[in-house]
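Notes to self after the call with IL:
- keep both proteins in one doc
- input above output, always
- annotate only the second one for now

Protein 1:
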Amino acid sequence: MRLLVCLLFLCASAAAATVVPKQIVADVAPYVDAGSANADAANIDWLGNDPRQDAVTLAWASLELATALKSAGIPARVYAPGHANAKLPTIQLSILPAAALGDQGFRISTSTAGILVEGRTRIGVLYGAYRVLDRLGFRWYSPTDKVVPANLAATVIDWPAWSEDPAVRWRGFWIPLDGVSTPVGESYAIWMARNRLNLTGTLPLAIRAKLGQTAWNGGHRLLQEELSAAGVFAAHPEWFALVDGQRRSISATTGTFYNPSFVNPDLANWFADRMIARLSGGDLADVDMLAIWPSDGKIRGWDESPEARAYGNNTDTLLLFYARVADDLAQAVADGRLNRPVTISGITYNDTWELPTRLDILPVLGSLDYVHVYYDPERSFGGALTDDLSLRDSDRIHVQRLADWKALGGLRFGITEYFNNSNYGGVPIIEHRSLLQDFGLQMGGGGSLFAYMHPLATKPGPRKLTNWLVANLAWRGVATGPDEYEGWIADYFAQRYPHAATEMRAIYDLMDTAASNGREVFLRVSLRHLLFIQQRSTPVWTVLQVSDLANRYLNGGHQVIPAPGAKATTDTVSADFVGVFQSLALLAQAKQRIDALATDGENSAEKARRIEDRLWAYGAWQRYELLRVATLYYREINLLVASTTTQAHHDRIVSLNSLLGASVIMKDTVTPLVVQSENLYPPEWLVFP
C-alpha cells in the first residue's frame, strides 16, 4: 500500500468551515447505542462474517471521539443515524465498502454540516476518527501521557478533503510472549491504535479485532520447544542436524541449539501440524502472525547432511522449510483445521544473511501468506545509514547486504530494528536525527512491515519521540520529506514542553549523541562483553588486550575494534563512535540542563515529563559510569596496575548495579520475557581466570 493524499474538491475551491461538532453519528445497529455495542465485543464472532463486527468498531470509534472531545470541553454525544439535530454540525462515521481505499484507508471531508469520515472497512473508519483527533491537536505519547488541545470550542475547521492509506501494512513492535506471560495490556493496545500502530504481541481476539491489531508472536523458542519434546529425537534422528558426523539433539534448557534438518520434508509437515494445533486451541490461539526463527546466536552449527548440502546453503534450506510450513498452514485454513489465516514471518539474521542460491523458492514464498523480515543487531547508531560509511564497517556491510537481498525480488519484506535490544536498558537511543534517512534506505522498494524491539510500558522517556516518529513514518512511508519529518519533531517538543521546547530538543540531541555508541559499548563483543562476559567461556582476548581495547572504547573516535561477531582477535572492523568519556560528559550536561529549566507556568503533565526525562539522563549516565569504573577495577583485580582504590571501585560497581537494578528504566519492557536489569553483572565477573 502507499499513502494517497488527494483533494476531493477542486483546488480553487475552499473547504466549507465548521466548528468542532458536539454530535457524533455512527450506525451501531442492531445495538441500541454505542455503549451497548462496545460492551458486547467479547461476544462477537470476529473470525466469521458476524455483521455486528462493524457496529462494535464504529461504536468504539465514536466513543473515542466523544471521550476526547469531552476532555477538551466539548460536550459531545453519540447518536444513531436520524437522531441527531440536523441543524447542528456532526462528525459522521460511515463504512463505504466500494470506496477506492485500502483496508486501512479513510477519507475525510468537511462542510457546514460537519466532518465526514469514510472508510472501506471499519478499521479504516477507526483510523480516520483518530486522524480527526490528531488534526484537532490531541496527542497520545504513551498510555498515560496525552495532550489535550486548549480552546477547542473556538476552533474553526476548514480542512480541504483528503484521503489516506498507510504506506506500510504492519507497523509496531516485536513483543515476545509465551503461553504463561500476561498478554499485552488493553490500555497499551488502545494507545497503539490511537497512533495507527497495528503490530503487537499476544492480545485477546476481541480487543485486537476491534482495534485492527495483528498479534505477532513466536521466535527462537518454537523450534526448540517442539524438537526438545520427549521421544522426538529417538523417533526421528533424521530431523536433526548432522554436525561433525553426529546427529545433534536439541535441549529444552540451552539458550541456543543446533538448527535442525530444515531440508527434511517430514520435519516441516510435522512442525506445521504442531503449529496448527497450538494456533487452533493452544498457547498460540491469539496469534495472527507467527515468527519462526532458527537458533539465536552463532554458537551452534547447521545441518551438514548430504541432503542439506545438495540442496543449497543454510539460507536455502531455511527458506524451503518456511515455504513448506506456510503452504501447510494455508491448506489447514482451506480445509477448516485452522480457523483463520496466519502469516508466517521468516528471518534473515546472523548466519542467514548469506544470500540464497535457490532463487526458485522466492516466488513460491511470494505467493504464500509470508513476510520475510531482516534483522541486523550489528548495525550501529553512529549516524544515518545514508552517510559516508567508509569508517563504519558494520553499517557499510549492513547496507550492502540488505541491498543485495532486496535486489533478488520476489519476497514481501520487512525490517525489525534494535532500538531497545535487551542489552540497551536505560540507554536512550532515540534515533530522531537519522530515522528518516534510515527508514527510507531500509524500507525503500515497498517494505510491508516496520517494527522495533523491545518497547517500554510505563516510562519510555525520550523513546516516546522514537515511538511518535515510527508511527508517523510507517504510516506516511518513504515519501516523507525532510520538512514534514521536521514538523513532527517540532510538534512533539511544542506539545510536550510548551515552556521549554527548544531547550528540551537540545537536551534530547545530547542524550541521543551520548547513546549513539550503544552497539559498540553494550552489545556484541562490546566493551561490556570484553570486560564481563568473554572470560566466562573460552577467552579470545587476554587481559592486556582487553585493557588496550578498553582505551579505544573509552576514548572513541575512529578506532579499530573487534567485529560484532568476532571469534578471533583478527576479526576486526573500522568504527567511528562517541567514546564512553564523552557519553558521560554529554549525559551529565543533559541532566544539568534539565535541572536548570525554569518551571514557572509548568503544568503537572509537563513536570512529569521533565522528571521522567531527567530519570533517563541520570540512569544512562549511571550505565556508562558503571563501565568506566568496571574498566578500572578490571585492571586492578587482574593485577595490571597497583592501586589502593580496588575496594572502592568494587563497592562502586555494586552500588551502581543496585541503583540501576531498581530503576524502572531497566525493567520496563512490555514483555516480561525481557528484563533488561538482568544484563547487569557483579564485579566478580570481571576476574579473569
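Protein 2 (the one to annotate):
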Amino acid sequence: MWFAGNRMQYFAQKGLLSDISDLWRDFDGFTDALKKQSTGLDGKQYLVPYYYYPWAVFHRKSVFRDKGYDVPKTFDQYRALAKQMQKDGLVPFAFGDKDGWPAMGTFDYLNMRANGYDFHIALLRGQKSWNSPQVKQVFDLWRGLLPYHQKGANGRTWQEAAQTLAQKKAGMTVLGLPHPGQQFSAADREDLDFFPFPEIDPAHGQDAVEAPIDGFLMSKKAKDREGAKDLLTYLATPGAEDVYLKSDPNNIAVNSGADTAAYTPLQKKAVQLVSGAKQISQFLDRDTRPDFASTVLIQAIQQFLNRPDDIDGLVNRHRTPEEADFFRHVRRRRTVAGKDGERTAVPNTRARRAGRPGPRRHTRRDLIVLGVLLGIPILLDLALIWGPTLASVGLSFTTWDGIGDIQWAGLKNYDNLFTTYPQFWPAVRHNLLWLAFLGLLAAPFGLLLAVLIDRGVRFSRFYQSTLYMPVVLSLAVVGFIAQLILSRDQGALNAVIGGRNPTDWLGNPQLNIWMVLLAACWRHTGYVMILYLAGLKSVDPGLKEAAALDGASARQTFFRVVLPTLRPVNVIVGVITVIESLRAFDIVYAVNKGRNGLELLSVLVTDNIIGEASRIGFGSALAVVLLLVSLGFIVTYLVQELRGEQQR
C-alpha cells in the first residue's frame, strides 16, 4: 500500500516498480483523474488505486442550524462567516499543526483556489518559484484568516483541534474525511457535515479537490509476477473495495462500481464532491519531493504561523526543491630515548630471584584466546563505530538518496549547510544553549543539593532518592511528562493557572525551548547530585578540621579546600554535560519532533537520513559537523588530562 501521484512516480523513476499498463487496459470503473494519478512520468501505469478521502471544511450541522449560518460559496463569505462566529463566542477555525502536516491542507486549497491546480502542481514540482507574487498572495490570504484560527496551533495536535469542534467550541476545521469523525461520539457523528473550500478566483472556482489516493504497487523484483498481477487485478474490482470498506467506513472506494448502499451520508457526499472535481490533488507532502516537504515546508509553514507578517522573508528562504537541495584501551609501552635519539623499549631491570622460573611463555592456545578476547571487541568497534563514522565522512561529499547511484558532490553539501539550510544555525544555537543551561544551571544546582545532603540534614535519604528518581527515566518519557503538564489546552499547569487565554508553553517558539530545558535539567540535576555526593564522601575529614583550626569559615573551607579536591568529579560532570547537550534528541522529538523552536543538530541528522527525506549525503554532512563539535570538546578534555598526569 502506497501513495499515488508524485510519491509513486519517484519510485517508478528509480526503476523499483513494475509496469502494469497491460492490466489497466482491462480495468473498469476508474476515472481519467485516477488513471493520471496512477501514471508515471514515462506515461506508464504503476499503481492500482484502492481508496481515497477528500479534504474539506467540516462543521456541525446543529451549530450552523442553531446560529443561522449559511454555507459560504466565496472566500469573502467564508471570512465574513468566521467574523460572525467570533462575535458569537465561537472559535471560527479549530486548528492544530503540532504534527506539521495538517496545515498543508489549508495551504493547498488556498493555492489551488487563488492560482489554479496547474500552478499548484508546478510549484510543488519545482517548476515555479516560491518567491513569486502568486505564492506571496497565498500567504497573504492565509494571514487574513489567522486571527480567526485557534491560537497556539503549533503546540496542538489535530486530534485536540477536532475535539473543540466536537464540543461545539469551534465552528469549522479543514481536515480530511477520516479525521474529525474520530473525535466524535457515535451518537454525534450524524451531526458532522462538510462543504467544499470556497472559491477565491472565479477563473478556478472550486474545480480542484484535495483527495489523497492510496493503492497497491508491484515491485520490479517480484518473484511471482503472475500471482502478483492476479492479486492486483482482483484489488481493482468493486468487490475487493466493498470487502475493505466494511471494516473501514472512513474512506471512499475509488471504483465507480463499488456498492455505496452502506455508505454513511458523509461518505455519499464525499463521493459527489470528488466525482464532480475537474482535478484531484494528492496533498502537499505527496505532490512534492518528500525531502523538501519534511525538512523544509513543514518548518516554513510553522514559522509562518508564528510570524505571519514576515512573508517576504519566508518565501525568499524557501523557493524551489532544487534550491532547497541543501537539502551523518591499549596499554602504553614505557620508552626512553637512547643515545642515538631513537626510542627503545625499557628493559626489565628486576633481577630474577634465585630458584624462580623465568616468565611463562605463551602457548598457541593462549595466543588464540587472547586474539579472540581482543579481536572480537576490536572488530565490533570497527564495524559498528569506526566503519559508519568513516562512511558518513565519505558520504558527506556525495549526493545519494539511499536508492540510486552515489554521485560525487564535493563541498556542495557543506556549502548548502552553512549558507542555505534554514534550520542549521538555529540548531547550532540551541545546542549551545543546551550546553550553557545544563552547565551553568543544572550542574551548580546539583552541586548545591549534594552539599546540603552531605551535611546530614533530616530525611537526607528521602531527598536523595527523590531527587535521583528522574535519572532513571529516559528523556523521551520526560518529554511525555512535560506534555501532560505544559500542553496548552489539556495541560495541568494551565488548568491550575486558569484564565481565558492559556499560555502556549510548548507551541510558542519563544517559550518551548526554556520549558524543555527545565524538564531536561530536572533529570540532569539528580545525576550531577549523585556524582558530587560520592565525591564529597571521599574528601578527607582531616582537611576540613585543619581548615577550621586555621580559622576558615564554612564558605572558605568549601571553596578553598573541598572544591579543589573535587576536580576529578568536576571533569566527569563537565564531560557528561557536554555529552548530554550534544546528543539531546529524545525529549524534543517527543514534544514536537524537534521543530518550531526546538531544532537540534541530532534531530536534523535524523530528519535528513532516516524516513522519507532520504538525503543521505546531506544528512552525513550534518553528522560530520556534529562529530567535529564533539571532537573539539573530547580533544580538549584529553589534552588537559594528559597534562595533569605529566604534572603529577
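Annotation: The chain has 29 helices and 14 strands. Residues 320-354 have pLDDT under 50 and may be disordered.
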